[in-house]
Amino acid sequence: MREAIEASGLNDDEALLDQPADVEIVDESIVFTGRVWNIRHETFRYNAEILGRDFVAHTGAVAVLVLDDSDRILAIRQYRHAVRLCEWEIPAGLLDVEGEDPLAAAKRELAEEVDLEADDWSVLSDYSTTPGGSNEIVRIYVARGLRKIEHAYVRTGEEADIEMRWVNLDDAYEAALNRQITNSVILIAVLSAYASRSRGWSTLIPGDSPWPMRRWRDATSQ
Predict the structure, then answer these.
(1) What residues are annotated to the active site?
(2) DSSP string, 148-174
(3) Start and end of every Nudix hydrolase domain (predicted)?
């Protein structure tokens, strides 16, 4: 196998690392304006070709894996109309407030969705949801040192009947492996947290750490 890899010119010892690409945008336009997101068409130069692509121009989002002292996570079940499912998820929300810091947005979502505050915030994962058709990126935080807040937020629409459940991380991990949960955010959060715990949570970084992926996306979307 190693000989085949070397013959192909590939290096199996190189670490996997996404790299930003600076391409020339030839033309761009909004082809559909939606209630929450728009569809953007961009024409760009890549490998000496002029290509055109449509994609969802997304605000980006943050999510919170709430973890208590017993290694339980707080899961919420919410109706999602596009897939006609009442999905188990974790608290999350859009970065749709102009200039709002992602960590501040995560704290806001935690309070609004599950009436909690947290003293300890760490970054668990950054990822692109559907890079073939959307520029959405998500930062997932771990929140610990929890306390209830006195003011309960009034929830409407699909959030009006949110169900909340504390689930042991081990049980959530099994639910992910057994395809019982399908939401990408909770899947990535649970699998990443399970792996991080096996390393003594050494993969976590401070909650206010820079978010290079978002900085690059915003700089190239102007």
Answers:
(1) 159
(2) E-SSPPP--GGGTT-EEEEEEHHHHHH
(3) 57-189
